[in-house]
Amino acid sequence: MDYNTQRKHLVLPEYGRHVQQMVDQLLEVEDTDERNRMAKSIIAVMGNMNPHLRDINDFKHKLWDHLHVMANFNLEIESPYPKPEASVIFEKPKSVPYPSKPIKYKHYGRSISMMIDEAIAMEPGEQKEALTSLIVNHMKKSYLIWNKDSVSDEDIIRDIKELSDGKLTLPPDFKFNEVRDNSPVHKPRKKYQPRKK
To answer: Would you tell me the crossing angle of helices 126-146 and 110-121 to the nearest 10 degrees?
Structure first.
């Protein structure tokens, strides 16, 4: 018996073992014209296996790249696209930079602190005041999510001063937007009453 576990490892298993065998046979062909003709036929088969991807702009380019990958980059053919480099295709992705600065007030979230940093960097003027008022009103909404009972405007003003190290201030006549309670209203359920016979 010939089991798949004993066979050669498939580089791109989504195309299956038959396509891999066609690519292996393609590598053994000596005649350049015959090799190019066979490569185009294999590309057509690979394209028919994934018809839902034909709408993608670089679909053909991707198929030719996959052909080179399946041939272990040893294929010498006239491709309409440049031969991909193994180092680029198998390159490990760069690590994602995670923020190391802890959040001071978690109920506001990290986006508020980022918005505060942006507001601090802005030049003084109407835009900075508008952004500051948006931040403060959003802080109040965020606070209300976690504490529906008591949210005073003084707490929000104190928090923005602390988060901005005193660099963002509100005018003395500033008024917060009215925040409505958007919690769902629970209607009392009707009691179950059996059907009348």
So the answer is: 170
pLDDT tens-digit profile of 120-132?
Answer: 999 988 899 899 9
DSSP letters of 77-126? ---SSPPPPHHHHTPPPPPP----SPPSSTTT-HHHHHHHHHHHHSPSSH
| Sign of the alpha-carbon torsion through 10, 14, 19, 24 | negative
Q: Distance between CA 39 and CA 45 in Å, rounded?
A: 10
**pLDDT tens digits, residue range 56-115?**
888 889 999 999 999 988 888 988 888 888 888 888 888 888 777 788 888 888 888 889
d(CA 83, CA 20): 18
Name the residue ranges covered by the structural domains of the chain. Answer: 7-89, 94-177
- Contact between residue 35 and residue 77 where contact means Cβ atoms under 8 Å apart: yes
Taking the CA atoms of 68, 74, 80 and 86 in sequence, report the sign of the dihedral they define: positive
Distance CA 92, CA 86 (A): 12
Residue of 31, 59, 24 whose CA lies nearest to 44: 59
Per the CB < 8 A criterion, the answer to whether 53 and 59 are in contact is yes
How many CB atoms are located within 10 Å of the residue 89 CB?
Answer: 12
> Does residue 177 sit in helix, strand or coil?
coil
How far does CA 15 lie from the centroid of its chain?
Answer: 26
